[in-house]
Specification:
Blueprint (H helix, E strand, L loop, with lengths): L1 H21 L2 H23 L5 H29 L2 H20 L7 H20 L16 H13 L1
Helix pairs in contact: 1-2, 3-4, 4-5, 4-6, 5-6
Keywords: Membrane, Transmembrane, Transmembrane helix
């Protein structure tokens, strides 16, 4: 960086010295301006890296992934705040699967251990909303548990 600045100053001084020997004022001004522009362009090129089109592509992919995640999260919250049937159909299987993966206890292996672990992790209040066996056959008109319950369940899953 220092070499670039010293070189730019030397170039401007050399151009001015040459232009003064010619004794033409327009030439002095034009030559000095041109040398200064070249020096500033070199400095800018050195300080501001070129943008790679692939970097923009990566940014677009990250933005698209963030939009997909946000849309999915908004959908999950909407299901949590709608009816019990939506909760049972859409959220309960996903939460139960995440519990099996996070806890390492498979329901098919030992249902009693699975139930006891679920009650220990979530407590009786939250376990009723995760337990895959607690599906309501007439829950179409009942309200879902809501955003707060979903949040509490996800926090407890994250702690596993």
């Amino acid at each position: 960086m220092t070499k670039l600045v010293v070189g730019a100053v030397a170039l401007v001084v050399a151009v001015q010295a040459f232009a003064f020997t010619q004794l033409e004022r327009e030439l002095v001004l034009t030559a000095t301006g041109a040398a200064l522009v070249v020096a500033l362009l070199a400095l800018r090129r050195r300080l501001v890296p070129n943008r790679d089109p692939e970097d923009e592509h990566v940014g677009d992919e990250a933005d698209a992934a963030l939009r997909r995640w946000r849309g999915r999260t908004e959908t999950l919250i909407a299901w949590a705040e709608s009816s019990r049937a939506d909760w049972d159909r859409r959220l309960r299987p996903m939460l139960a699967r995440q519990f099996e993966l996070a806890g390492g206890h498979r329901k098919a292996k030992d249902p009693n251990v699975y139930q006891m672990t679920g009650r220990m992790v979530f407590g009786d209040e939250l376990w009723q909303w995760v337990d895959p066996q607690n599906i309501s056959r007439t829950g179409g008109r009942e309200p879902g548990p809501g955003r707060e319950v979903l949040h509490d369940i996800l926090v407890r899953l994250a702690k596993l």
